[in-house]
Amino acid sequence: MLGLGIIGWIIIGGLAGWVASMIMKTNAQQGILLNIVVGIVGGLIGGFLLSLFDVDVKGFGLIFSFITCLAGACLLIWIVSMVRGRTKV
Predict the structure, then answer these.
(1) How buried is residue 63: exposed, middle or buried, by Cβ count under 10 Å (0-12/13-18/19+)?
(2) C-alpha pair distances (Å), 2 with each of 16, 46, 68, 72, 82
(3) How many domains does the chain contain in total?
(4) By residue range, what is the domain housing residue 20?
(5) pLDDT (tens digit per residue) in 35-89
(6) How many other β-carbons are positioned within 10 Å of the β-carbon of residue 65?
(7) Does the pLDDT of residue 6 top 50, yes or no?
């Protein structure tokens, strides 16, 4: 991720996970550690999905990386909420 290393992944992932949890209205249920994990996993999901369309996330800078993490984190939260919703029925 643009040479930022593990600290960069944690910072970008944490911010993306936090913003995604606010967008998806799960912020009260998640702590900082879960926000970081959701953001990092969301970045992996977003990067994977973009690679299917031959889009290189590294070439577009920090803002695009953040948006990729954010979109992937929102998708992850949505999928988890759908799975949890189905298990309650």
Answers:
(1) exposed
(2) 16, 16, 14, 18, 33
(3) 1
(4) 5-88
(5) 889 999 999 999 899 889 988 777 777 888 899 999 999 999 999 989 988 654 3
(6) 23
(7) yes
